[in-house]
Amino acid sequence: MEIHVVTGDITRRSVDAIVNAANSSLLGGGGVDGAIHRAAGPELLEACRALRAGAYRDGLAVGQAVATEGFALPARWVIHTVGPNAHAGQTDPGLLEAAFRNSLDMAVSLGAASVAFPAISAGVYGWEPATVAEIAVRTIRKHPGTGIHTVEFVLFNDAVTRVFRSALDAGD
């Protein structure tokens, strides 16, 4: 499995699946979540409302993942995961690891060969980017990733990109 680190807009990546750092409501929000909902179009919100009307009536739990179509995105699928919110006391690294691992598990079950991840929980959820990068890289590397050929970390600025590159290089 190849792992790449890039600065850019995750909504423009030509991969099979992009991971959405969603909130538990699955109904859109700010940051990456809002950008993905805007770029995918109103059908994504309708698909998320359908999830909430069915198996996810209480929302998606921290660390879990669920998929929808990508609609107007270049990606075929959006994998929604809820990262832990450090400001709400969710500081267990296992929760963050679960968000990355369960997203990859979902990608495997969809048959995705390429997946793009944001820096889950590194934004408004208050986790230090270096901690997120270390957990993300470690989790991706130890995942069997059956059928996944490429994982991209698509990051919103150069500073976070440097932190992820450093984490990736540290494991080489």
TrEMBL record:
Signal peptide: none annotated. It comes from the Bacteria. It comes from Arthrobacter pullicola. SMART domains: A1pp. It holds the Pfam family Macro. PROSITE patterns: MACRO. Gene3D superfamilies: Leucine Aminopeptidase, subunit E, domain 1 (3.40.220.10). Residues 1-172 form the Macro domain. InterPro entries: Macro_dom, Macro_dom-like. NCBIfam families: PRK00431.1-6 (NF001664). This is O-acetyl-ADP-ribose deacetylase. The lineage of its organism: Bacteria, Bacillati, Actinomycetota, Actinomycetes, Micrococcales.
